[in-house]
Amino acid sequence: MPFIVDLTSGTAEREHRSGEPGHYGGSILGLRLMAERTPAGLDPYDPRALVYVAAGMLGGTRAPGLAKGVFLAKSPLTGVAGEAHALGPFAAGMRGAGVRALAVQGRAERLSYLLVRDGEVSCHEAVELRGLGTAATTDVLRERHGPGAHVAAIGPAGENLVRYASVVTDYAYAAGRYGIGAVFGAKNLKAIVCVGDAPAEVADPAAVAAIDRYYRDSIAANPLAALQAGEPGFAGWTGEPPAPGYASVRNFTLPGGLRVPGVRDYGGRAVAVSGACPGCPNDCLKVYAPPSAGKRRAGGLGQEAFLSLGWNLGIDDLDTVLAANALCNDLGLDQVSLGGTLAFAMECAERGLLPGGPAFGDAAA
């Protein structure tokens, strides 16, 4: 089932495994391939290191809550297997292009991207994309391959091997954590582009449709699902302040005390609040940006972004946090890891260990 892609030679071959006993796709197949092909002690940036990208088992179907793309590699941040998930339409895009999984090894001689179309995989040079953010990269590749193309791209952070660089899909939906974007960068892999609209087949369409109807009918009665589906969504952190110690405030030096935004504060800031994940009615990941932002498209707001880039840094201004979140997506930086790094630097500066360093609460920093 997976395509084994060698960037060094530019070849891609389909490997048939679906008939093996105990075969599973998704993350399990990725871990299995890593165990088979990654020698002990291998540096995550070694060309032999594998990066695995797959559509979730039900990505592209109408099964609610399962429209995820899987990104898996030996993490340059932790040194062990790291798995990041991207919500949004990219998993459906992979299935539509006729591919469920890619296992990528080697290193391209020049910056390149993979094109997946009609069940085939090819490698193309992309030197002109060097230094571009994920949004501009997506613009160029959609202009080249059509507005319906789905793109997973790295930004300058991945190119420069930042150990918590992310891969960002379709402008706003990041596979954060574990530095998968840096592994892309080490392979000179700028992006993966998926083109096609093949339907995602399931064994029992009626059963999937019944699950979908039940889920949609049950959202309003489930407090968590209703919070996710409503605005501003579960990543908005509105309402009552969290219990003391629940969230990191100023690098865990305070139990709380910063302002909690209200629902009205998000007025005029919504860019896309529905339809992100094909087939899922929950719409838990929404896109927000400050009204003053230029191109308002990169601000997919994950659950922990507000805490990491806001309260953890002593900042409670909503527009500052939303702008920082969108900038992280465009640069290809994991919001949570960056927030922790900045908070540590701020505490060091506060304690006199980093003269001239950034200060808690300084949005300009």
UniProtKB/TrEMBL annotation:
<dbReference type="Pfam" id="PF01314">
    <property type="entry name" value="AFOR_C"/>
</dbReference>
<comment type="similarity">
    <text>Belongs to the AOR/FOR family.</text>
</comment>
<dbReference type="InterPro" id="IPR051919">
    <property type="entry name" value="W-dependent_AOR"/>
</dbReference>
<keyword id="KW-0479">Metal-binding</keyword>
<dbReference type="Pfam" id="PF02730">
    <property type="entry name" value="AFOR_N"/>
</dbReference>
<keyword id="KW-0408">Iron</keyword>
<keyword id="KW-0004">4Fe-4S</keyword>
<dbReference type="GO" id="GO:0016625">
    <property type="term" value="F:oxidoreductase activity, acting on the aldehyde or oxo group of donors, iron-sulfur protein as acceptor"/>
</dbReference>
<feature type="domain" description="Aldehyde ferredoxin oxidoreductase N-terminal">
    <location>
        <begin position="1"/>
        <end position="198"/>
    </location>
</feature>
<dbReference type="GO" id="GO:0051539">
    <property type="term" value="F:4 iron, 4 sulfur cluster binding"/>
</dbReference>
<protein>
    <submittedName>
        <fullName>Aldehyde:ferredoxin oxidoreductase</fullName>
    </submittedName>
</protein>
<dbReference type="GO" id="GO:0009055">
    <property type="term" value="F:electron transfer activity"/>
</dbReference>
<keyword id="KW-0411">Iron-sulfur</keyword>
<dbReference type="InterPro" id="IPR013984">
    <property type="entry name" value="Ald_Fedxn_OxRdtase_dom2"/>
</dbReference>
<dbReference type="InterPro" id="IPR001203">
    <property type="entry name" value="OxRdtase_Ald_Fedxn_C"/>
</dbReference>
<dbReference type="GO" id="GO:0046872">
    <property type="term" value="F:metal ion binding"/>
</dbReference>
<dbReference type="InterPro" id="IPR036503">
    <property type="entry name" value="Ald_Fedxn_OxRdtase_N_sf"/>
</dbReference>
<dbReference type="InterPro" id="IPR013983">
    <property type="entry name" value="Ald_Fedxn_OxRdtase_N"/>
</dbReference>
<dbReference type="InterPro" id="IPR036021">
    <property type="entry name" value="Tungsten_al_ferr_oxy-like_C"/>
</dbReference>
